[in-house]
Design goal:
By secondary structure, the chain is an alpha+beta fold. The chain has 4 helices and 5 strands, in the order αββαβαββα. The chain has a 5-stranded mixed sheet.
C-alpha cells in the first residue's frame, strides 16, 4: 500500500495488539488487514483455557473482514513484542490467508516498528487453495 496507508496499517496492527487476551502465553499479537476496497480490519489473539480453542490475530482480522462481506485483500501487518525477531504467522494462519489468494503483501514487524514485507506466496510456497479442488 502507498506510504500513508502503510503507516496506518502498521499502526492499527500495533493498536490491535494492546487488546490481545493472552493470559497463558503472555504473547500479545495484533494484525491489521487491508481489503481491496481500502478498508482496514484489525484483530488480536484470543486465548482459551482449552488451548486449542484460541484464535490468532491474523485469523481474527480475516474473520472480521469476511463477516463484513470482504473477500479480497491487499496486505496485512502483524505486530508483537518480539525484540530481535520479526513476527511471522503460524502455519494455520498462512493456510487461512491462502484461501484468499497468494498475491498480497504481509508486513512482518519487530517491536521497534521496523518491518520486512513478504508476498504470501513466499510464506506458503507450493500451497493448496480453492482452485485445487476444481482439478
Amino acid at each position: 500500500p502507498p506510504g500513508k496507508h502503510l503507516q496506518l496499517l502498521l499502526r492499527r496492527s500495533r493498536e490491535a495488539k494492546s487488546c490481545a487476551y493472552c493470559p497463558y502465553s503472555r504473547f500479545p499479537v495484533g494484525a491489521a488487514l487491508l481489503t481491496a476496497s481500502g478498508e482496514i480490519f484489525s484483530g488480536c489473539n484470543v486465548e482459551n483455557a482449552c488451548y486449542s480453542l484460541g484464535v490468532c490475530a491474523e485469523r481474527t482480522a480475516i474473520q472480521k473482514a469476511i463477516s463484513e462481506g470482504h473477500t479480497s485483500f491487499r496486505a496485512m501487518a502483524i505486530a508483537s513484542d518480539m525484540g530481535d525477531t520479526f513476527i511471522v504467522p503460524c502455519g494455520a494462519c498462512r493456510q487461512v490467508m491462502r484461501e484468499f489468494g497468494t498475491d498480497w503483501d504481509v508486513y512482518l514487524t519487530k517491536a521497534d516498528g521496523s518491518y520486512i514485507v513478504k508476498r504470501l506466496e513466499e510464506l506458503l510456497p507450493l500451497s493448496f487453495g480453492p482452485e485445487d479442488l476444481k482439478k
